[in-house]
Design brief:
Blueprint: E1 11-18, E2 21-28, E3 33-37, E4 42-50, E5 52-56, E6 59-63, E7 68-71, E8 77-80, E9 86-93, H1 95-109, E10 113-115, H2 121-132, H3 139-159, H4 170-182, H5 189-196, H6 200-211, H7 215-233, H8 238-244, H9 250-261, H10 265-273
């Protein structure tokens, strides 16, 4: 058994560290086998392509696209990637974040399990899409929020608390007001949660329930709405509109416009002036 083995022995395709999480996308070739080993951090592994066999606690489990593999820190396991190889997105929970999350998510982070896609399919899709969108300056915030949502979904399903929350408490409305105020300059989930006296996991889950979107997506929509207003009501250069709306530059604003509205900022301005 190897202690503290590197989080992936395959080819690393990309890695992001943010908000107490490390997101690593990797590809393992066909026929690769990893002897029993352990990792120092709790992990959540999203299987995105191919398949592999996970051996833990004397049991062999086939992990296919859509599976979510939970492993507590120090869990001994082995992997057999078989004839197809596999591709995955691994989320490591750093020790300080793990300590803060344990009080609300012990069922998700202190246990080991292989879960089918049912129950986390939407979070799976949004996480993989957000990780792939490397040009988005809000990517770290979006990834952090989605990781918290995924952990909350797993915790609720494993602890039997799903569906028990109702209504929109006053603290959540204050949080949204704070996010509205900061949307154009920058938002950190931990700062908002601390200000309203709520755990970040609870904030991420409840915010999505209230607004229908994650904090990162909500901020992006607010920035886009502000840019649309400036384009319609001013004759400022588009580069200045981008800067005043929280985008990196004109090219980033144009990409978001094309993605969300199907047109360029210039075309939108012309349309609004007709």
């Amino acid at each position: 058994m190897e202690r503290g083995q590197r989080i992936t022995a395959g080819k690393v395709l990309g890695s992001v560290e943010t908000g107490g999480f490390v997101f690593t996308e990797s590809r393992h070739p066909a026929g690769m086998r990893l002897a029993p080993h352990e990792h120092e951090r709790a992990t959540l592994c999203l299987v995105t392509a191919g398949a592999f066999r996970e051996t833990m606690n004397g049991d062999d489990t086939d992990c296919r696209p859509g599976s979510l593999v939970l492993k507590r820190a120090g869990q001994i396991h082995g992997n057999d990637f078989g004839p197809t190889g596999a591709r995955s997105l691994m989320i490591e929970v750093l020790p300080q974040r793990l300590a803060a999350l344990r009080e609300v998510a012990a069922a998700a982070l202190d246990h080991t399990a292989v879960l089918p896609q049912a129950g986390h399919g939407e979070a799976f899709r949004r996480l993989t899409n957000a990780f792939a969108y490397t040009a988005d300056p809000l990517r770290p915030l979006v990834l952090e929020g989605l990781a918290l949502e995924l952990i909350a979904d797993v915790e609720r399903s494993r602890s039997g608390t799903a569906g028990k929350e109702k209504g929109a408490p006053a603290w959540l409305l204050r949080a949204r007001a704070m996010i509205d105020d900061l949307a154009l300059v920058g938002v950190r989930l931990d700062d908002v949660a601390s200000e309203v006296g709520i755990h970040p996991v609870h904030l991420a889950r409840s915010f999505k329930r209230l607004t229908g979107s994650s904090v990162g997506d909500y901020v992006r929509h607010r920035r886009l709405a502000h840019a649309r207003t400036l384009l319609a009501r001013t004759d400022w250069p588009i580069s200045h509109v981008a800067d005043r709306s929280g985008f990196c530059d004109q090219a980033h604003l144009t990409r978001v416009f094309r993605l969300q509205l199907g047109i360029t900022p210039a075309a939108y301005r012309r349309m609004m002036s007709e």
